[in-house]
Amino acid sequence: MELSKGNAEIQVGIADYKVASSPHRLITLGLGSCVGVALYDPVAKVGGLLHIMLPDSTQFNNVTKPAKFADTGIPLMIEEIKRKGGNPSRLTAKLAGGAQMFSGLDEKFVLNIGQRNAAMAREILSRLGIRILAEELGGNRGRTMIFDTSNGQVTIRTIGSPIKVI
Amino acid sequence: MAGNRVLTETHMDVLKEIGNIGLGNAATALATMVNKRIDMAVPQSRFLSLEEVMNLIGGLEEVVSCVSLRLDGDVPGQILFIFNLESTFNLVDMLMGMEKGTTRELDEMGESVVKEIGNVLTGSFLSAISSMTGLTMIPTVPMFATDMLGAVLSASLVAGGYVEEHILTIETLLFENQEQIKGHFFLFTDQGSLQTLFNSLGLTL
């Protein structure tokens, strides 16, 4: 748990995003079917971490929180990275989350949101020409994602497994 | 669920009372199962953000077990029971007639024990509400997850379609007085189902 200590760590809530520059670390806790998207400009050492809940904002009439959705959240965060000195053409991505948390699931009840979140995040990134360097998606475990803007490393914490760096 | 923001204090009181009557019955059922006295906190009925719902339970990375049941019938919705890990193990020991501390991880058997608890509590909750309102509510087969609170709760609410900024949350805590069992009960109702519920009690929305 020593990873969550240190005063340079900025927490990103659900359906939210934060942008920071080196040496700050961005952290989002307990991703289940949600997907965490880390975008990084290695030259400016500016990065953003987004915690999306749902794939597609066009399915909803009244979108008050664009960071909740993959299709609106990713472009929104890129704008903020730009404002903080990052260059969109240099951005690379790392993804985590999109798990299927519950067992004994009724298929039509869930429609596997985790999978759809992951697929939409990939699609939006490819549309924007952002390369995905690494991902830790699917499965059935919750994940905590810690993004180090000094080197672009993403550390994944899961219950009952060793820490993994991608 | 924004359309339901017209709820008055009377409506909220009625929802609390529904929580009270239903959970009172469920607490008795749990007490009978584990042969211990089970108390409950005063049920609350509020519009909460996902983060506020989580704060009621604990930290986002706290390991919990969660039984989730979908409700079909006149009042579509979702019921969740969330127990911390210690309570989960204690419940399995109590129900399997094992010495406290025997269960240290959940195998398939343990998982079905917890699901069955969810089943029985939901059944007794619903039967109390049904006899009060005359409405039919049918729970689906329980689903189960044990992992970080944030992951489990968000996945469950998103799957149930509760993705608004503020969700109407009917909530209470069930506990055994030596803290061997501590579990949160949640009822979330689908849009439109509240109308049916209030109408059955002679209230309009």
UniProtKB/TrEMBL annotation, chain A:
GO molecular function of the protein, one example?
protein-glutamine glutaminase activity
Q: Which Gene3D superfamilies match?
A: 3.30.1330.200
Parts forming coiled coils: none
Would you say which domain of life the source belongs to? Bacteria
Q: Which CDD domains match?
A: CheD
Q: Which regions span the lipid bilayer? A: none
Query: Pfam families, alphabetically?
Result: CheD
Report the EC code(s) recorded for this entry.
3.5.1.44
Q: Which reaction does it catalyse?
A: L-glutaminyl-[protein] + H2O = L-glutamyl-[protein] + NH4(+)
Share an example GO biological-process annotation for this protein: chemotaxis
Q: Does the keyword Membrane apply?
A: no
- Identify the SUPFAM superfamilies for this entry: CNF1/YfiH-like putative cysteine hydrolases
Keywords attached to this Swiss-Prot or TrEMBL record, sorted alphabetically, are: Chemotaxis, Hydrolase
Q: Cross-referenced InterPro entries, in alphabetical order?
A: CheD-like_sf (IPR038592), Chemorcpt_Glu_NH3ase_CheD (IPR005659), Cytotoxic_necrot_fac-like_cat (IPR011324)
Q: Which family does it belong to?
A: Belongs to the CheD family.
Function in brief: Probably deamidates glutamine residues to glutamate on methyl-accepting chemotaxis receptors (MCPs), playing an important role in chemotaxis.
What is the protein's given name?
A: Probable chemoreceptor glutamine deamidase CheD
UniProtKB/TrEMBL annotation, chain B:
- State the Gene Ontology BP annotations: chemotaxis
Q: Name the Gene3D superfamilies for this protein.
A: CheC-like
Could you tell me which InterPro entries the record lists for this protein? CheC (IPR007597), CheC-like_sf (IPR028976), CheZ_family_phosphatases (IPR050992)
Can you give the residue ranges of the CheC-like protein domain? 11-44, 109-142
Protein name according to UniProt: Chemotaxis protein CheC
Gene Ontology molecular function, alphabetical = hydrolase activity
What SUPFAM superfamilies would the database entry show? CheC-like
Entry keyword set: Chemotaxis, Hydrolase
Is Hydrolase given among the entry's keywords?
yes
Q: Organism's domain of life?
A: Bacteria
Q: Which Pfam families match?
A: CheC
